[in-house]
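can u do me a favor
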């Protein structure tokens, strides 16, 4: 149920050139379908969660992500790639990857490693299934089911493909690359127009041919949707907003032969989020960012039992660092669980079981389609971060809709009913790290805009 709240999203909102300077005003409204206010999120994120999460993401386990950036676009023939320097991604030489990660990229603990090694050894010797322990046979079965599972919300890369390479996310940060224009517009238009449950006759605000009603028809349509489809649109809009905040916060301000200077570009931020310049769309986009934050935060609070098991490790081969990072990860998850105003996902897919199951499958397939669209992005760095963030959000959705399986996870021993690969784990936390960073960057932009008064 939606509850009225006061929201302060932006400080100074600049007017077009030639207009009178605007006041330092507040944007108020509702964070629909939630009972949480933005101020609570800001305080929780900026002063409690963000510093810890940022430290975790610097660690070896989370900085290396394996990705195939060479997959062809499955939806249209387009071999155009951004040739600009800042679109490039520098993969890691294999000898720079920690041994524990390189040796078993999909394994996440000593427990999983030992079971997998037993399976691999049995296969090598031509052993029949009966030669394996009952526990190992169950684990193999569960891993096989997981690989082809219907609970996946993403089209995951085949990490064993020759084209899949490790990328150091710290050396390839998400920032402004100059990738824009018709190619970038085509990606987002395909996502919104073909995958957000929207009929063609309903035009998005600011989309070409949208009519003159200022988005009234669109928001009337959106309000009339069921909560699940409305949430789907808001998640995609929130992801889009988060990406635009990153591009505005890490903008190429100076490019000379001697150095590149990156930093916040207030004008770029205003063009994307200013209430006047966007005809009122900017504040809505930022509200959707906060909605995305709540969804991913809720997933972290739900998945705690999976990571709490003694057998689980953030396995890199460096025992002391692995133990330290697991303690930090559990601290973050307990902090996430302590958040006082969590989103209630129980309103999703409720009611008639048959209709709910059909709707959930539609929801899953639409999101999976969006993950495939990431292979159509012409800028490799944008493609990298797009693939990671869609996989992270897809993993968060998988967690939210696997609550019954997570509740059955034993305190020790393998988790047969619910599994996360290392790829999913790295994507989940880095994706939330991006959203958390966006919320933190908003605080910085507010201060910069206030100083312009």
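np, heres the sequence
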């Amino acid at each position: 149920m939606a509850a009225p709240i006061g929201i302060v999203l932006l400080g100074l909102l600049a007017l077009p050139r030639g207009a009178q300077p605007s006041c330092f005003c507040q944007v108020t409204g509702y964070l629909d379908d939630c009972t949480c206010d933005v101020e609570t999120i800001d305080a929780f994120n900026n002063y409690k969660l963000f510093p810890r999460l940022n430290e975790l993401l610097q660690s070896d386990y989370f900085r290396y992500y394996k990705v195939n950036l060479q997959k062809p676009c499955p939806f249209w023939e387009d071999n155009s790639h951004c040739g600009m320097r800042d679109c490039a991604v520098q993969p890691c030489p294999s000898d720079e990857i920690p041994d524990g990660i390189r040796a078993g990229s999909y394994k996440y603990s000593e427990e999983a490693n030992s079971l997998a090694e037993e399976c691999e050894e049995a296969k090598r010797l031509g052993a029949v299934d009966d030669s394996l322990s009952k526990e190992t046979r169950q684990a193999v079965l569960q891993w096989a089911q997981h690989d082809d599972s219907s609970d996946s919300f993403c089209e995951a890369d085949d990490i064993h493909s020759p084209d899949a390479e490790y990328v150091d996310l710290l050396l390839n940060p998400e920032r402004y690359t100059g990738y824009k224009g018709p190619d970038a517009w085509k990606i987002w238009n395909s996502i919104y127009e073909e995958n957000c449950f929207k009929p063609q006759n309903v035009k998005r605000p600011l989309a070409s041919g949208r009519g003159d009603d200022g988005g009234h028809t669109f928001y009337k349509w959106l309000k009339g949707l069921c909560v699940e489809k409305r949430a789907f649109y808001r998640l995609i809009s929130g992801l889009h907003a988060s990406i635009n905040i990153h591009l505005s916060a890490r903008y190429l301000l100076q490019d000379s032969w001697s150095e590149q200077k990156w930093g916040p570009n207030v004008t770029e931020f205003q063009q994307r989020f200013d209430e006047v310049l966007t005809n009122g769309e900017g504040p809505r986009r930022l509200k959707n960012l906060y909605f995305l934050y709540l969804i991913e935060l809720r997933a972290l609070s739900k998945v705690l039992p999976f990571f709490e098991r003694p057998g689980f490790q953030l396995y890199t081969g460096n025992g002391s660092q692995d133990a330290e990072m697991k303690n930090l990860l559990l601290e973050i998850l307990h902090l996430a669980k302590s958040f006082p105003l969590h989103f209630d996902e129980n309103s999703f897919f409720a009611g008639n079981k048959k209709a709910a199951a059909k709707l959930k499958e539609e929801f899953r397939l639409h999101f999976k389609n969006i993950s495939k669209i990431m292979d159509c992005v012409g800028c490799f760095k944008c493609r990298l971060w797009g693939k990671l963030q869609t996989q992270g959000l897809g993993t968060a959705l998988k967690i939210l809709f696997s609550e019954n399986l997570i509740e059955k996870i034993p305190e020790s021993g393998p988790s047969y009913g619910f599994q996360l690969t290392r790829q999913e784990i790295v994507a989940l936390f880095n994706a939330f790290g991006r959203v958390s960073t966006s919320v933190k960057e908003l605080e910085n932009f507010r201060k910069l805009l206030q100083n312009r008064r």
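Strands lie at 4-5, 29-30, 64-68, 164-168, 251-255, 260-263. hope that helps!!
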